[in-house]
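Here is one chain, start to finish.
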Amino acid sequence: MRLLVLGGTRFLGRHAVEAALSRGHDVTLFHRGRLARGLFPGAREVIGDRDGGLEALGDAAWDGALDLCGYVPRVVRQSAESLRGRVRHYLFVSSISVVADPIVAGYDEDAPLRGLTDPATEVIDGDTYGGLKAACERVVREVHGDGAIIVRPGLVVGPGDYMDRFTYWVRRLAEGGDVLAPGPPEAPATWIDVRDLGAFFFGRLEAGEPGTWQATGPEAPGTMRGLLEGIAHAVGSTARLIWVDEAFLLERGVQPWSELPIWLPASESALHAPDLRRAHAAGLRTRPLADTARDTLAHERGLAPDARAGSPAMTRAREAE
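Its structure:
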């Protein structure tokens, strides 16, 4: 297939482009050139800005487009309309965060979606992210109709993740000692290895089937206990998990998701319990947690000592407190 990738120079994008090239696809990579020019010698590279700078793509056509970096409906509309009639399928990478409150465990792709208090906002933060992604989905469906493919990942993890969520736990458990673990241990937890997500993208594009898929893992329902104990075992850690009650953490101002990554309080934890049957039927497969943990640790150990200096995740001093 001839594929156009919008983005492709950071974590998810790099792995997605690697997946496309490994499958023998002819890839054109469109990005701003700010991070990594010449990263993929096997791909054609076009430098431009999707916000007002799409003319760099000329009048070329592709079998499919993969939109990895769409967050604002106005900007997504520019690329979607520019590529109308020039791509057979337009795959937009959304998020399970589009699902509206109250989220009920077992929610599927037809669950109600978030809205925006201010439909014109272009501020991307915790309050607007899900609503903006939902609005972007609507734009893609409106413009591309039966050519629209929507994939909603959960938490994307693996080697190269710069957000320090899953990576915090890999690094911390590898250090050993007493490790603060947010209870309850059987609370749901979901994640998907970035490489498995990339394979799913191209499986959907190759199939050419329109629709929406929630894409996360593991294949069997995951828990915080299974996640943390699984990581510890994979990296050969002797760490001791100290399970701390949710109320205790919240009373002391510990920030879910960011300061203690992946953890969500009970009132929000249903986000970690989507119905994945549609994605599994479409071929989504996820690798063992141990493989992801070991590969992530190997990547982390290759980083500069100050690489995580700006991380919002809990410091050792805060953990001890």
